[in-house]
Amino acid sequence: MNPFATHFDSLEEFADRVSEVLQCPITIEDANHRLIAYSTHEHYTDPARTATIINRRVPEKVINSLWREGVIPKLLSNREPIRVEMISEVGLGNRIAISIWKNKEVLGFIWAIEMEQTWTEEQFELLKQAAKAAKNLLLQLQIRKHKKEERIQEFFWKLLTGHFSSHNDIIQQCHVLNIPVYPFSSVVIFHFKQEIQPQVERQIDYLLKTTQQLAVPLYTIDHHRLTLLAAPKSNANAQADIKRFLRSFIAQMNERFRIEITDGAFGSIYECYTKIEKSYKEAQTVLNMKRAFPHDLGNVQSYQELGMYQFFDLLLEKKRDGDFYNETLEKLKQYDNRHHASLVKTIETFLDHDSNVNETAKALNIHPNTLAYRLKRIAEIGEIDLHDMNQKVKLYIDVKLAKYETSH
Amino acid sequence: MNPFATHFDSLEEFADRVSEVLQCPITIEDANHRLIAYSTHEHYTDPARTATIINRRVPEKVINSLWREGVIPKLLSNREPIRVEMISEVGLGNRIAISIWKNKEVLGFIWAIEMEQTWTEEQFELLKQAAKAAKNLLLQLQIRKHKKEERIQEFFWKLLTGHFSSHNDIIQQCHVLNIPVYPFSSVVIFHFKQEIQPQVERQIDYLLKTTQQLAVPLYTIDHHRLTLLAAPKSNANAQADIKRFLRSFIAQMNERFRIEITDGAFGSIYECYTKIEKSYKEAQTVLNMKRAFPHDLGNVQSYQELGMYQFFDLLLEKKRDGDFYNETLEKLKQYDNRHHASLVKTIETFLDHDSNVNETAKALNIHPNTLAYRLKRIAEIGEIDLHDMNQKVKLYIDVKLAKYETSH
DNA sequence: ATTAGTTTTGTGGATTTCCACAAAATCATG
DNA sequence: CATGATTTTGTGGAAATCCACAAAACTAAT
């Protein structure tokens, strides 16, 4: 006899019924640990549950603990209820949990708190039945969500490609689509090693929905790329917050799902939503430049950090028009060719290392005096004063620009 | 009785007649020391005269000597014949010279060599008569020249403004207009302190026609500016040759005529005549940048030396579009405003002096440790690594660009 | 192979730069 | 004007950079 084989008007009603049957507080989450429903009978409740109910989602540090303890991996691979030992650092009491399945996909979880008495075999059996019953209720939710999701996707692409010209129009649309609005935002792009498969999409969704480092009101997936709108909490260290998010997102995708992300980048942080297009372009520029200069821009992620490479596309265009002939560089190249030397490589490395002789010598595996000699020759042959910032800047840009041109 | 009161078919005939009458070699030059005619009777001839005849103009070093000795100034202010002592360093024998006048303008000169016998009063008188007779002959020459000059002016402006698209068309036009063609050329612009008056135009013409450091096939004058096409002799040190020309032209205008030239600049050196337009634009860019950055570009003359400022117009355009927001710079500016400090000035000077602490401290009149402290603060406040070339370059450009923007 | 010219590496000392610490001066603010 | 924070200047020693000189290695010709 199944106590859940009746019709429920809402998921709340269902949660209350499960709670009644099992005599303990019940929480139902979706696959991304968003709160879907919770029982309201008066029972003891642990701090983790309270926090979950208040924020309408499970706190990130709780999720992280559960991953570390192997609880969530077990739930994702196993249809049986499992007992979860107390994790007092994050306020989690003794729990019983079970995942809700549809075919091979996890739709959500039911969490129970194990009260004074240890659960009987019968109680475990009842929880399994509850999980089966929850499946249909969750499916209905999902269908409603999918329809909305499509409209949101289209809206996001319009934002990215600069389809709107008024900030207020955008805000209004957000309200209609129930997209939260934040004061500051930046476009983030991740480049994945493999093309992103539907299963990975769910994993991405999972991480984005569970992260609380910053808000991700919108995201979209396209081939190898995940593009999202990131809203840092404060403006003060927004830059740093986004960087931290990038790092942890890449790490978690790898640790939890063995998905490799080759690269991540983000554009400037803007207040006006019409600037999302610009931020998107900037993020793309960062990715392009990182591909062209993997060595130079290895740990650059933001458009700000891109420095002089910000305007390389502009310069390349002019260079293609035949401008920017650099006499010094041409003379050095010529010398390199005629005497198969490597003056250009030498000056590039020297400038890469902030004109520091020792560091450069190490990087080139040559004696510091050798470097000094070469620099003397470079100054002579290229007719350049290596203590003149303007000349050095021009030469540095031209060297890198020449590389950029051939890398295209 | 005037022995020159007859009709002469050519100036050569006239020169021979003067030579006959005075019993010595005669050379007639225009106001720019170009050879107009010379006598062919067999007499002793000094090396200076030989060289003049072969090159069809007086060698520059001879002209320079004559200026230094005060001979030419005297000829330009005085209608009497004068005796010129031998200047053996430049191969000049004992000479008698007189200027040819029309109203208040000197049209040219007659030079005689004083042979063994010292000239009599009568001979001086005959030379004066010859000078008067030469006037009409020279005037006819001038009229022919003026007409041609107008067509050449128009042609030069067309070249400067990119009116022609084929190199060969241009060369052909040059042949028609009798303009010599050179393998390499660059556009030079001089900016004069005062608007250029007709009298100064003649002085410019004089210097340009007499210089032999490089060829000046074309030039034009417009308000404060003299624009000319300079053809260096060799390609090897063309850059240096043009620089030398600039320096000496400015010096000579000042020394000889008390005319002040505020600035001079030149574009890249091109082979193809269609690139004259580009060289002209480049020279203009140099002048504009020098006006905006007098301190930074004090002794820059060529487009090559302009370095990174070459593309400032391009960058400014983008900056006006709202790109190139530099977080570091904004933070420093903000700090400067709030605490009326001078971090921006400090970092600018530091970068101006190639990141050299001691030099910068001297330039700012502060203790090196003060500078070190400020640099530490700059790194903290601007969140910049002052050993990262890329970041430094970006900051340097943005600092200068901000100045450029306000200077407009 | 020889040879002159160029490049690399090594050595040692003069000079400069860098840092840590501290005192003095200045500034902001109640 | 008292106070604490920030900035400037001073001192001295460790570390690094620079430079001159020379030997060795290498190259490109004859």
TrEMBL record, chains A, B:
UniProt-recorded name of the protein: DNA-binding PucR family transcriptional regulator
Pfam families: GGDEF_2, HTH_30
Similarity comment text for this entry: Belongs to the CdaR family.
Source species: Anoxybacteroides tepidamans
Bilayer-spanning residue ranges: none
Record InterPro entries: CdaR-like_regulators (IPR051448), CdaR_GGDEF (IPR041522), PucR_C-HTH_dom (IPR025736), PucR_C-HTH_sf (IPR042070)
Gene Ontology MF annotations: DNA binding
All copies of domain CdaR GGDEF-like, residue ranges: 162-289
